[in-house]
Design goal:
Elements lengths: L5 E9 L3 E8 L4 E8 L7 H20 L8 E6 L5 E5 L5 E2 H8 L4 H20 L2 E2 L8 E4 L2 E4 L6 E2 L20 H4 L6 H17 L9 H10 L9 H10 L10 H12 L31 E3 L5 E3 L8 H15 L5
Antiparallel strand pairs: 1-2, 2-3, 3-5, 4-5, 6-8, 7-10, 8-9, 11-12
């Protein structure tokens, strides 16, 4: 029994640092979801305090937001061992990630509807000066017609003291923006990139960038363009307009809303003619690197040399270092 009132009934899901349980609130006689923080035993006491503080920040950030597209936080309680737990509404549905494992790709109208709901939820968070920083299919829950954004565990809250060391990379690599992987300041535009990456996965059945290692993935995000999406029209305009390297060049919320509404609006039918097979997508930009091209980086004397192996540096340090070297060598491009 947690905090003398929450009885765990069963595990809903598990991530890298936490577990979400279905539980019963014996005081209010209702089912809830509770999030348990699990910190590896080998971390230092200082690191442990940072993770506890981040969990508390998640509760505060989500509790500020009252929006049907954002999971409602009811309470934050402390366990007997001093760990914080978050009590929130129980969503009776599945994640977009789980749905994509079953269907691989979704119809355009459904994708646009999901995109609109996520856009409104993110706009609500941004209006409270909260940047989510981890928008991805696993954090989008589907409950009937309701679409809910969850997990503000690494959200950046304006006015709160930072919990992240300079240069540290937080987020899920495949859905992170170029500025995120470079360890730069995140903004609402960073969440919009991740929104587009999530919708791209719903169109293609995979994220816009894939690679065998995190380092290679970060380089791809920083230096390459994604393959053109299978479906054209307004939905493709949203994807292409948000997956731009420079945050200042990404579409505005109003532009995104207008384009997605064109797809979901009354009388709109799925544009089956705009959906192309993989074989028909061979026409890609020739001025960007393919996923399998070997990268060469300039050394201190300007000579080309192969990129360092991923094992030589921690993932985040390697990717940030490579990105910065690329930017120094060709600032106009990066």
């Amino acid at each position: 029994m947690l905090a003398g009132r929450y009885r765990r009934l069963g595990r809903i899901g598990q991530g890298g640092m936490g577990v979400v349980w279905r539980a019963y609130d014996t005081d209010l006689e209702r089912e809830v979801a509770i999030k348990e923080l699990r910190v590896p035993e080998q971390v230092t006491e200082q690191e442990r305090r940072v993770w506890y503080a981040r969990m508390q920040r998640e509760a505060r950030a989500a509790a500020r937001l009252r929006h049907p597209g954002i999971v409602t936080v009811y309470d934050r309680v402390m366990g007997e061992d001093g760990r914080p737990w978050i009590v929130m509404e129980l969503i009776h549905g599945q994640s977009l990630e789980h749905l994509l494992t079953e269907q691989e790709a979704l119809p355009e109208q459904q994708i646009a509807a999901i995109g609109l709901a996520m856009l409104e939820a993110l706009s609500a968070a941004h209006s409270h000066r909260i940047v989510h920083r981890d928008v991805k299919p696993a954090n989008v829950l589907l409950e009937g017609d309701r679409i809910v954004l969850t997990d503000f565990g690494i959200a950046a809250v304006e006015g709160d003291a930072t919990l992240t060391r300079p240069g540290t990379v937080l987020g899920t690599p495949a859905y992170m923006s170029p500025e995120q992987i470079a360890g730069q300041t995140v903004t609402p535009a960073s969440d919009l990139w991740s929104l587009a990456a999530t919708l791209y996965a719903a169109v293609e059945g995979r994220p816009p960038f894939t690679a065998l290692t995190h380092g290679a993935l970060f380089i791809a995000i920083a230096t390459q363009d994604p393959a053109p999406p299978k479906c054209g029209g307004p939905l493709a305009q949203v994807l292409n307009g948000l997956l731009r390297k420079d945050p200042a060049n990404r579409l505005s919320v109003t532009q995104i809303r207008d384009l997605l509404t064109t797809v979901t609006g009354p009388g709109t039918k799925p544009d089956t003619q705009s959906c192309r097979s993989v074989d028909q997508q061979s026409a890609t930009r020739t001025d960007t690197l393919s996923y399998t091209d070997d990268l060469t980086l300039p050394d201190d004397k300007g000579r080309s040399q192969p990129a360092r192996a991923a094992e030589e540096l921690p993932v985040e340090q390697e990717a940030v270092a490579i990105y910065r070297r690329l930017a120094e060598a060709d600032p106009d491009r990066y």
